[in-house]
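Format notes (please read before filing issues)

Several people have asked whether sequences and structure tokens are stored in separate files. They are not. Every record keeps both together, in the order shown below: the sequence lines, then the token lines. Line labels are part of the format and must not be stripped during preprocessing.
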Amino acid sequence: MTEPRSPHRAWVEVDHAAIRSNLATIRNRAPGAEVIAVVKADAYGHGAEAVARTLVAAGVERLAVATVDEGVTLRDAGIGVPILVLWGVGPGEAKVVADARLEPIVYDERSIQLLDGATDGVIRVHLKVDTGLGRQGAAPDDAVGLAASIARSPHLELAGTMSHLAVPGEDDAYTEVQVLRLARTLDAMRSAGIDPGLVHVSATGGILAGDPGLSGAIRPGLALYGLLPAWATGDPIALRPALSVKALALRIFDLPAGEAIGYGLRFRARTATRIATLGIGYGDGWPRAHANNGVALVRGQRVPIVGAVSMDGLTVDIGGVPGVTYGDEFVLIGSQDGERITAEEVADERRTINYEVTTALRGRLPRLHLGAD
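Then the structure lines:
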């Protein structure tokens, strides 16, 4: 047994060597394309500032976030590369966008006018075209007129034109329709004498399904962190999960047969056993759905989570693993002595997707960055 790597009661470990490896693998899937690395939602729970530094040092051309605040946080951390804001900005955010040199999306006259009046300088924008996902974006028939409005503005520059795929890898016919709509829009823009700038459409799903040739850039998110969408779990792409969740025992005690533990007394021992209380709960992003549901690793063996998950702790049955001490690390996501619990396995236990598992991990869990730049 080795000493725990962290002095904390529970923590997240992030393997930056895995992130670098995943980036290289993704580049091989789309040779020649620029990479817009998506670090929204605190880099999918991995820690945006540290991950962004590693990605920039590894040569990514742009970063992408979901909100203006996320972009400002990266600027404040000294990140200087272009940062794309993937969701629309509000009236109170336009000047902040200009001051932080962020690249927001636009998709209607309102958003164009909002940004045009926010600065005496120039804001680089990306025109988002709704080709069929239906959340944000300009209708293809409106895109050329909006691009012309941007071109007329002395304060806006069209840095890129983009869309987002709804079902890449799952419905090829629908994806082809989306790509065709974007291609026609780009042709119309060029025929009108407007340079669409950097074209990008594929996120992780599109990259895995085969990025369409019309794109000059890709927007990987999930794959950077070694995770795959559910439909692509059979893809042979060599990605390495970057995130582990670990905890230490706060109490180890014997539970006699017939005794129960936890809120609601949801677990009652059929035979005498031994229990470890771990310092991680739904206040850290490990939800109540794991009551009597899921496992942890200790000494390379799986042990069941038993009883209710509370805000600050949970309990596991270690009766089948002799010799567990307070120096042992418990792994909730990650590997130990040849055994592994994946984010996908945890997602299945919660009836959700791996994206939600990692992004749910809250800031109260310290991030321990291994091999960070």
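For reference, the curators noted about this record: The CA atoms of residues 97 and 254 lie 57 Å apart. The two ends are 29 Å apart (CA to CA).
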